[in-house]
Amino acid sequence: xxxxxxxxxxxxxxxxxxxxxxxxxxxxxxxxxxxxxxxxxxxxxxxxxxxxxxxxxxxxxxxxxxxxxxxxxxxxxxxxxxxxxxxxxxxxxxxxxxxxxxxxxxxxxxxxxxxxxxxxxxxxxxxxxxxxxxxxxxxxxxxxxxxxxxxxxxxxxxxxxxxxxxxxxxxxxxxxxxxxxxxxxxxxxxxxxxxxxxxxxxxxxxxxxxxxxxxxxxxxxxxxxxxxxxxxxxxxxxxxxxxxxxxxxxxxxxxxxxxxxxxxxxxxxxxxxxxxxxxxxxxxxxxxxxxxxxxxxxxxxxxxxxxxxxxxxxxxxxxxxxxxxxxxxxxxxxxxxxxxxxxxxxxxxxxxxxxxxxxxxxxxxxxxxxxxxxxxxxxxxxxxxxxxxxxxxxxxxxxxxxxxxxxxxxxxxxxxxxxxxxxxxxxxxxxxxxxxxxxxxxxxxxxxxxxxxxxxxxxxxxxxxxxxxxxxxxxxxxxxxxxxxxxxxxxxxxxxxxxxxxxxxxxxxxxxxxxxxxxxxxxxxxxxxxxxxxxxxxxxxxxxxxxxxxxxxxxxxxxxxxxxxxxxxxxxxxxxxxxxxxxxxxxxxxxxxxxxxxxxxxxxxxxxxxxxxxxxxxxxxxxxxxxxxx
Length: 630
Ligand SMILES: *[C@@H]1O[C@H](CO)[C@@H](O)[C@H](O)[C@H]1NC(C)=O
Ligand SMILES: *[C@@H]1O[C@H](CO)[C@@H](O)[C@H](O)[C@H]1NC(C)=O
Ligand SMILES: *[C@@H]1O[C@H](CO)[C@@H](O)[C@H](O)[C@H]1NC(C)=O
Ligand SMILES: *[C@@H]1O[C@H](CO)[C@@H](O)[C@H](O)[C@H]1NC(C)=O
Ligand SMILES: *[C@@H]1O[C@H](CO)[C@@H](O)[C@H](O)[C@H]1NC(C)=O
Ligand SMILES: *[C@@H]1O[C@H](CO)[C@@H](O)[C@H](O)[C@H]1NC(C)=O
Ligand SMILES: *[C@@H]1O[C@H](CO)[C@@H](O)[C@H](O)[C@H]1NC(C)=O
Ligand SMILES: *[C@@H]1O[C@H](CO)[C@@H](O)[C@H](O)[C@H]1NC(C)=O
Ligand SMILES: *[C@@H]1O[C@H](CO)[C@@H](O)[C@H](O)[C@H]1NC(C)=O
Ligand SMILES: *[C@@H]1O[C@H](CO)[C@@H](O)[C@H](O)[C@H]1NC(C)=O
Description:
By secondary structure, the protein is α+β, with helices and mostly antiparallel strands. It has 4 domains: 1-153, Bulb-type lectin domain (Agglutinin, subunit A, Orthogonal Prism), CATH 2.90.10; 155-287, no CATH class; 300-424, no CATH class; 509-629, Phosphorylase Kinase, domain 1. 19% of the residues lie in helices and 32% in strands. It is built from 10 helices and 42 strands. The strands form 11 sheets. A 5-stranded antiparallel sheet has the order 29-35-32-33-31. The protein is elongated, with a radius of gyration of 35 Å. The structure holds 2-acetamido-2-deoxy-beta-D-glucopyranose (10 copies). One 2-acetamido-2-deoxy-beta-D-glucopyranose binds next to loops.
């Protein structure tokens, strides 16, 4: 639609942008641009002049001179004040304004008077530059200090490289981009992309008064709703200082033509690049359903990899289950358990990889640590969540608390930022318990480490403790005491307990097969020369790590005994606990208690090193892997 209208535009334009000679890029107090005349930037990239999309109304604008017949207007001076009585003329007046007069000398449009400090001299001049900026310089030098006015400060619908989108609080400028009303009408349309200041600044795409897309709050490092704001050939930046906050970009190859514009037809902001004789779409936002503003309502969040896309935050439930089931999530979620609002009655649940909830109305404490932030939030009954306010350089600084509904969240697969959601402590406890049962992948590494340690110990060992202990007895036991334990483990109750007896239970192969779904890959959490490690849950709920020794590592019974003794010592030290073992044919397996992160950290990085000084074997093992002893 827009394309078709644009070709119409350029058909019309072709007659209007007639080949009048554009020999200069500058007007001063004695020259003007009138009728067909244009200014052409020095490198021939941009052109400035009057254009008339439908013939009836005429505008002063800037377009790509280097792109014949595919005219894209990147800036319009008088978008809401069209010139009707043509020809028009653009003059620079002696008081330092750029003025468009119509045929009757009526002022159609004028730039604001030069700000104080920029005394207009007789050498004042306005120059069209190769970056598309039409810059009025008070002394004609074009130096930054002499800038009295520039088109870059008054964007239309397009952001060119080097332009800023945001706000200059000192000069009281709002750099926003607003769509054309239609492809042939440059007057302000209903779509505006602009910065909203507040607790944390954020960019919003408005349709009239309504927000349809939000970039996610700026957290000092980036826009949390645009996690992949990088691309070869481009440099993107978001800057926030006391004086100004803005988004801007640059191209690394200056010959690359790129523009970022509000596309009203498609209701989105879009980046285009000029390639192969065409404008192609580079990216656009909103780019997926989860980008729709507040898609999942208050306290809901969106995840493109989930079905349905919307979920309630942990500890919350749909406001209306019926509407939620019909995939209408806009009503959002409500707490399952009310906050107590008393000291230890409430806690927090971290949500990882989040587009932060809208924070323009949140409260920011710049010099508060994250720990203190938690206290600040707990102390304020209306606080719903907290997070770090500034993640610049990957370091958490400052504090932002939300004493408002949490809106417009989504979860990404990549790292964005953690938000700590306030919940009743009872909810936190329930969630922790549930997560402990679920969070297998996070333990992968630690378990693999444990497995490796144990694996090293056992490399020299053979088979399973139970093997030399008489398979016959095991079978007998199975018959006489079929359910000595619900988890299918049986104690070796050897009446003649020798010193070497290790008192290790035997596990039935069938039990382990059932727990790991026949050693399905899904359950595997690590692998090494010693074999593979699986994580599983036994019937009684106990979580175990099962090490299935590779047959290569089977060795003599004597060595095995020694190793098992060592393991027994480890057990006495409350290290990784060996629950039992299993042998079936050529299979030898060891079953460990599954260790949870914290305790395991302590074992691996604390006690083991201390312990290593006591036992030569361990010492050797651990010093050979120095990482354990840092
Ligand atoms: C505009 O500038 C031109 C050239 O300096 C001058 O001839 C013309 O009179 C000016 N027009 C008005 C309305 O000031
Ligand atoms: C514009 O240029 C065309 C062709 O060069 C010419 O015929 C026409 O008179 C010009 N119009 C004005 C207003 O100068
Ligand atoms: C561009 O437009 C001009 C005149 O309107 C025409 O002569 C020329 O062939 C066009 N060029 C292309 C590449 O379409
Ligand atoms: C417009 O202004 C210029 C200079 O000020 C003057 O020469 C010209 O006669 C005026 N034209 C009309 C139609 O008033
Ligand atoms: C956009 O910025 C202009 C100033 O350049 C300002 O007048 C206008 O109100 C702003 N529009 C919105 C929707 O903020
Ligand atoms: C974030 O912290 C860095 C480092 O202290 C600082 O330079 C930067 O200005 C901060 N950003 C904001 C938006 O406060
Ligand atoms: C340019 O894009 C238009 C529509 O997007 C397409 O029809 C045309 O074939 C493209 N031209 C080239 C040279 O790629
Ligand atoms: C939770 O609080 C609301 C009002 O704040 C109250 O209407 C509701 O009954 C409370 N729910 C429970 C389970 O206490
Ligand atoms: C933020 O606060 C302003 C002013 O109090 C209010 O108009 C606006 O609706 C609030 N926005 C949100 C998302 O709460
Ligand atoms: C809680 O925080 C909000 C937002 O920062 C603030 O307006 C309110 O005064 C605070 N309430 C108390 C009791 O501190």
